[in-house]
Automatic annotation (TrEMBL):
<protein>
    <submittedName>
        <fullName>Helicase POLQ-like protein</fullName>
    </submittedName>
</protein>
<dbReference type="InterPro" id="IPR050474">
    <property type="entry name" value="Hel308_SKI2-like"/>
</dbReference>
<dbReference type="GO" id="GO:0016787">
    <property type="term" value="F:hydrolase activity"/>
</dbReference>
<dbReference type="Pfam" id="PF21099">
    <property type="entry name" value="POLQ_helical"/>
</dbReference>
<feature type="domain" description="POLQ-like helical">
    <location>
        <begin position="6"/>
        <end position="152"/>
    </location>
</feature>
<keyword id="KW-0067">ATP-binding</keyword>
<dbReference type="GO" id="GO:0005524">
    <property type="term" value="F:ATP binding"/>
</dbReference>
<keyword id="KW-0378">Hydrolase</keyword>
<dbReference type="InterPro" id="IPR048960">
    <property type="entry name" value="POLQ-like_helical"/>
</dbReference>
<keyword id="KW-0347">Helicase</keyword>
<dbReference type="GO" id="GO:0004386">
    <property type="term" value="F:helicase activity"/>
</dbReference>
<keyword id="KW-0547">Nucleotide-binding</keyword>
Amino acid sequence: MEEFLRRLKTGLEGLVLHSHLHLLYLVTPAEFSASIPLAPDIFFQRYSALNFEDLAAAEQIGATECMVMLMASGRSLGSDAKALLHHFYLTLILYDLWKQNSIWYVAQKYQVHRGIVQNLLNSASALGATLNNFCQELSEFWAYQQLLPNFVKQLSYCVTMELLPLMELPAVKRGRARQLYVAGFKSLADIAKVDPRELVAKVHHLPYKTANQIVSAAKMILLEKADALKEE
């Protein structure tokens, strides 16, 4: 907690709010440095693609262009600089998820197993909620009291971003959507073309009646969307 307290206090001295990158850095769990190695070429490519506002946040955090150039060229950096850049690298992964890229896409982009990317996102969301509750109790962090609630809420939506299409279906909430997704039914189209009996076989504790309703609803939603496109 001392590390996060330091981050919060440092942020008060110059939090960059032109984008969400700086806030994401505050809630990035550093322990994932062990399971997500820093790939210099990917980092340099991703850093170079940042816009002016994001670069301003990176500079304020300490991930300067000079440091990134030194790292990319294979030059030696101190342990603190390496740790900071690695932490910021994890933040860039979260930033791509924040922009509503799928976990599959981000995992492939950073050459990391998608399960690890999902865990990183889950941990960041949980940490954000913890820091939000912590800041609500301390008057010195009044700025975070205004900033964090909506930010944490939006970050939690990223956790279920891939499930949102499935959650359009009646009687399908987050838990059921996750079951369907894990079973290989990742879109409405996947469900619309399947036999309800296959859903029952692949999704635990799913009654046939409910499976039939889900398949019928998926077909109906797709038809409605197709009709809407024709009208446009």
